[in-house]
2-phosphoxylose phosphatase 1 (Elysia marginata), 721 residues
Amino acid sequence: MAKKGVLALCSGVSVYLYHARYSQGKLLALHKEDAQILSTEYCPPSNRPDGRAKVPQTSAKDGPLVLQLQQVQIIFRHGPRTPLHTTPNLSEAVYDNDLLIRGHQESMFPYIRISYLGEPIQGWSNLETNLWKKPLRGGALSGQLTGYGKEQMYMLGLQLKDIYTKRLDIATYDADEVRVMSSNVRRTVESAQSLLAGMFGKEQLIDYAQCCGPVRIYTPDPCYNILVPNTETCAVLRKSNQSAMVNPDFIPGFKDQRLEVEEHIMKRREKLLEAITEVQSRLDATSAFYESEGPRTRYREINKHRDHYLHDPHMQPLYDERAQAIEKLDRFWANVLTREPALQDIITTGDMRALVYLRNLRVEQFEGTVASGYRIHLYFDENPFFHNTHLCKVVYTNENSPILSRETPIKWKGDMQKLVQEGLFQDEEEDSTLKEKMECEDKTPKCARQFSPKTEEPPQKSEQEVIGEDSFFSWFSTPTSCDSDTVGSAIMGDLWKNPLAVMENDPKVHDPWDKKLNFVYSYDDATSRAVHGWWYPSQLRRYRDMIESNAATTIHYSMTGQNPEARKIITRLSAGPLLTEMIDTARRMMCGEKMPKLCLYATHDSELVALLEAMCLWDHKWPSFCADLRLELYRELDGCDFYVRVLYNGKEQRVRGQTESYMLWGDFCNAMRKLTIRREEMERICRSNILERIAQEILRQCKKEKETEETKAISNTPCGM
């Protein structure tokens, strides 16, 4: 039996080896210098209408088939950044501006942004300037590329250097061989800068700048932005984005899951609020008891700031205990102040930006032979607006006082005094919007003008402005008479005695936390924390998979549509402009034009999601920071055919149901044909009523929502970013 088994095994191996000699091999792409002999047979391509690539096959006797890399186009998302959003009722992470937003030494070389008209540009898009109004705890602005983000992009550049510079013969930077394009947003421009430094080295890029001028980073036409889905200029894309971002509860299962997460988050706040309520009830009972007993004896004591005040031995311990309980609950005093009827005409939206960092409040009365009056102490967490953690306003009540009041000088951070002022940058934003609108209406090219390259910095704002008269911080900073101090009187009254009773009133100015939880915003917040070394929020940990999945679904719905019919249109509008640009760039090289061998496109998650859907590569996962999508163009050395390979994060992909990773150029174009789009056609579709025919549910959701300035901004900004 053993001999028969061995004979059978030997026979099987012999048969296998015999047939293997005549087996057909699969197509492989090789470096020019690493060409290997392949057992494949080459068949000239035919114009097949099905758009599927059939791998050229041949017997070994007909010789090798070798491909040479001709061009690479890389679309990549920017590196790790500070969050664009925060999660309601979760304590914010501290994003220290000096620690996180630092320069990356290996990426510092001269560059200049060039518009689609070939002119240098100084301003930034609305997507960038809107972030200047959103500072985070610690002082960093929202959406800024961090030092860690620059390092990650630099490392990606090193990886791409190892893979492509020799194969494309571009070891030295040459503007004719390398083209860089970025959305006009700081984090993508800086990401492109760091990636270039990784690929070519800082010293080489500095030498190039000294010889030929700064490295050019091109930005697209803001009216036809191929690197960002045009939600601001295309009504069809805007409605799709608005439906998913402003009204996500219509997505099956989202509402119940949102309520579940919100309830879990609020449980902790409710426990903290119960602790405050318990102390307040004892404080009320004690106050009622001693008021019935008549005037109480108060003693002069020294507070921790070395000022004397009248100390009530019965009430003060309870006030101190209440203060300790309140310190554990974020934004308590901000919500009390904005609900006090006497302050509703004083506290502005600008005030609330800073008051949300108010950790505790304390009032004191003092009497003396020289001066008498009251003090209002404001204790702040570290915040992005001013350096002070303690502010104190002293108002004197004695008639002979030489001064009316005394205030702690507020040490504002940079121009943050203006940010607290109501209506900050309103004129600047209107001018920017008007300028872009005029540019969109006037398509005539402008003459290039001379310019002097300079370091890229945010536009410098004007000198600090005085805060308006009717605001909380203007009251604090302005000398105040006790006879007309309505704010101080309100704080010294019911607000201080029983803030929980004031909390029952409706606010005029809402805390940004007074919103529904949005899975996209929570994902953005938690991901930015985790990537920069903070713990994933404990209140969200059990829902992490749910949040990530629902956030991915939301951005997919926003950028590619919510049903099969809408998806054909929305995906084409989102991904089509860039896809068309890439195909045109490759085709022109194939036709013999002098084109760059390496094309880099610095973009955002929203554009990557649309491209992945267009190529049928969407894996239901949010593109990570530094994610990249590559389109490689190969030429057959012994023939005239071109092939395409697509990689996502370095892994080969099968585009639109293809069975092989290398596609004939014609097959790739056939597969992408229905997704490419020209500017004229896109503008026509964007003006049409096509959604009324294919996506009634989107229009119904949009009509239900009364548009505010906030929802308008959300609708105009692509999901993610």
Summary: The CA atoms of residues 81 and 156 lie 16 Å apart. Residues 256-446+466-502 form a domain with the Arylsulfatase, C-terminal domain fold (CATH 3.30.1120.90). Confidence is low (pLDDT under 50) at residues 15-63, 422-469. The chain has two domains: 72-251+520-716, 256-446+466-502.
